[in-house]
Every structure is written in C-alpha cells, then in structure tokens.
Amino acid sequence: MKHRLTRTAAIGAVAALFLAGCSSSGDDSSQAVSKDCVPAHEGIETIKPGVLTVAHYDYPPFAYMEEGEFVGIEGEIMTQIAEMECLDLELVQGDGSAMITSVQTGRADTTLGSWYRTAERAEVVRLSSPVVTSPLSVVSTSGVKTVDELAELDAVGAGQALVGVEEMQALLGGKLKLYANNDAEFADFQAGRIDGAVLGLGAAVTLLELYPVEGATVEPLEADPRLSATVNVGQTNFPVNLDNESLGEAIDENIAQLREDGTIAELAEKYGFPAEIADPGEPNLL
What we know:
The protein has 286 residues and is an alpha/beta fold. The protein has two domains: 171 residues, 3-Layer(aba) Sandwich (D-Maltodextrin-Binding Protein, domain 2), CATH 3.40.190.10; 96 residues, 3-Layer(aba) Sandwich (D-Maltodextrin-Binding Protein, domain 2), CATH 3.40.190.10. The strands form four sheets. The chain has a five-stranded mixed sheet with strand order 1-2-6-3-7. A hairpin with an 8-residue loop joins β1 and β2.
C-alpha cells in the first residue's frame, strides 16, 4: 500500500507531517484514503475526521523519520493501524516531554515512542494494550547486570523522564546524573564522564550501535525490588484521551491482530530486538 509524505501547515511552532493511509496505487499526490477502503472499526472518533493525529518525537528504534519515511518498530505498527482504520496519519512533532500532554489536552489522538504503561499516566490518558516490552538496561564497559553492580559505579546517567528515576535517586544519591535527552546522556558516557547509562533496551542498543564505545555492552538489569521497573518490565503503549474509548478499543484490537498474525514479531526482528519483547504478557502498570 502506497504512502505519500507531504508537509502541512505548522501547528503552533511545531511542524506536522502528513502520511496518506490506504491510498490507491496512482501517483496523484492529492489522493488520500481510497473510496473503497473499509475500516476495521466503524464510528472511531478522531480530532480531525479521517485523520489520525499522532504526537511524535524521533526516538530510534521505536519511531523516527528516515529518508522521508516513518519507521521504527512502533512507527510501522502505528502506520499499519492507520491503514486498518482507513485513516490518514498526521505526525505532529515536538519535545518528548509534551507528548502525553498533547494527548491529554486533545491536541493529538495518540502518541508513540516507548511510552510505558504507568499508574501515573493512567490517571490522565487511556492506556492501550501493551505493544512491546522495553526492559530497563545499562550500557557500561564493566558488564553491569545487577542493581548492586550499578550502585558500585562512580557515576551513572539516566533520563529525567525515565520511569523509576526517583528510585534510582534514592539508591544512588549524588552519583546519579540526570539528562534532558538520551543523546546528551550517551555523549557523557562516550566521554567517560559517567560509567554507566541507564536506558530502555531499545534506546540502549540503538545508541551503542550509532556511537560505539570500545568494550561497552548492553545488559538488561536483573529483577530487584529496589528498582520496581526491573520487576514489572516496562510495556510500551499508544495512549489516547480518557474520553475517546472508541479509538482506544480500536487500537487495542488492532494491536492484538498485529501480534496474532506475527507482524509485531517480524518488526521486532527487523529492528534488532530480542524476540521476547513482542510478547509482553498481561498488562501491568509501573
């Protein structure tokens, strides 16, 4: 199924990208959803009729733009969901810190980029069924696998928005350095200013591939009650507004379909994830 990508008017100070879903095979760039497209679910409510507006920030390998294509394991899943519902896909780019708020306040229908299912988020948005898991992991040159080994490092980095960061602060105290984004955290790891970088598995694998560090490895942290995110492994999701049950139910059922037909497992392999992340098990909340 062919997609076209065009630039649309800016929303506030944020650029939006438009992908036509369920388009015909013709080359007319003005075409969008074909008239014979039949949605998997009738009566879905979206901010703009016929359009799925997705708050988005580049977060490889989950969702990012590459050569004009929306890619990443979650990017491709979201694109297929839009196709299943005969919806055009509009990407509204912004800072990672604004993604959940955009859904909560009705500026976007949903968002993506390894957003864990958490009790705190469940209070402000409707969480979807789990998409994949992203275990809390450590990049280090000493093969850190346990919380005790993590605590022995002289300096540890983590993202400000990482789930469980408060527990890490209690555990590590002044040895923990917080970062606004993963790139800044990994730059300090490369430079030797921190001894370990705590990240979700996908981000850890991608950053180490992009910016190799001699002797460094990625290891998921073993379960330890001092860091609850290692006990209940983080499950990513596509949240929607609390008042939009029709869209939430459709996304849940489409995720189940894509898991059942093997699509999610195939995408996990494509983007270098362990196969087990495609089967997140029963929903949990961090």
